[in-house]
Amino acid sequence: MALPVLICDDSLLARKQVRKSLPESFDADILTASNGLEALTILRSQEIGLVFLDLTMPELDGIGVLEAIKQDGLDCFVIVISADIQPEMQKRVTELGALAFIHKPVNPEKLIVILKHYGLI
Amino acid sequence: MNTVFSEEQRDCLQELINVAMGLASDKLARFLNTFVHLQVPAIELVNSTQIPAQFEAQYSSAEAAFVSQGFLGNGGVRGEAIVLYQLDNAHRISALLGYDTDSASELEMLTDISSILTTTFLNGLAEQIDNQLSYSAPRVLSSRQNNVTQALIDTACHWELALKVDISYQLIDHSFNCDMLLLIPGEAVLNIQQILDRIVEEY
């Protein structure tokens, strides 16, 4: 059965980059959101197995989304894909429960290693 | 900007700039040994002749400094990067970094910070479009010693276009604002559009 996946980024290019980096063997049903609020609306209304989350976004940023996921006890894996690569930021998102932190622009090989590591492919 | 670039091109350029700015912020955070709150930089393409007047309007009430650095890449890529600061916070940051608080050290610090910002940012941008840049030595001017507006007029007249990147850094205990201007020749726009189209097509 396909895994419901949400790609959340304010940039269309970045959303496409993530989508194109996913291996063909990854059976996913892909939804997209262009800011944190849109992402939360989707996450609260349907089951999402995995979220690819940008950090720097208008309306609600990625940190806000992670906090809400934690607070609401939403059951989904989160992989952060961010241009903000400060070690302090990586620490923060890990503490908020993100599985992994990937630097932008996303590197497909790294993404595959992470998906394999967590048994998602 | 919207009249020059299509929405897809603008989105693509914004993302390339976000990634490059992320690299520059990380470098700056390590240099200042603090966490830098990163905001999405606002970008705008303007006629370089508009720059001095905009600068006057924005900076005239305060002491300001200007650091410029030329860059040159493959395939005719060239331009001049200018970072503009208000000097309000500069002495506090100087002290934080252990520079002396006289104005010469202040300029030395601004040159260091600008160099980090400019070269890391431009290298990050160049890498994403498979280019490589070299730089001239930075030139620094302060309104305490020089006529910054005149220097800006003299510099801007050599170029036709300016890509304005408004950078706003929030450090933990103080904020730090600067504007980065990339002055580029007019024919560069066509080149940039082609590069952006190629990237958009790739995805």
TrEMBL record, chain A:
Q: Which residues form the Response regulatory domain?
A: 4-119
Q: Report the superkingdom from the record.
A: Bacteria
Spell out the Gene3D superfamilies in the cross-references: 3.40.50.2300
Tell me one GO biological process term: phosphorelay signal transduction system
UniProt cross-references to SUPFAM superfamilies, sorted A to Z: CheY-like
Alphabetical UniProt keywords? Phosphoprotein
Record keyword Cell wall biogenesis/degradation present? no
4-aspartylphosphate occurs at D54
> What is the protein's name according to its record?
Response regulator
The record lists the organism as Rheinheimera mesophila
Automatic annotation (TrEMBL), chain B:
Q: Source organism's superkingdom? A: Bacteria
Which BP terms from GO are recorded? chemotaxis
Keywords tagged on the record: Chemotaxis, Hydrolase
Molecular function terms, GO-annotated: hydrolase activity
PANTHER family noted in UniProt: PROTEIN PHOSPHATASE CHEZ (PTHR43693:SF1)
From the Swiss-Prot or TrEMBL record, give the protein name: Chemotaxis protein
Please give the organism: Rheinheimera mesophila
**Organism placement in taxonomy:** Bacteria, Pseudomonadati, Pseudomonadota, Gammaproteobacteria, Chromatiales
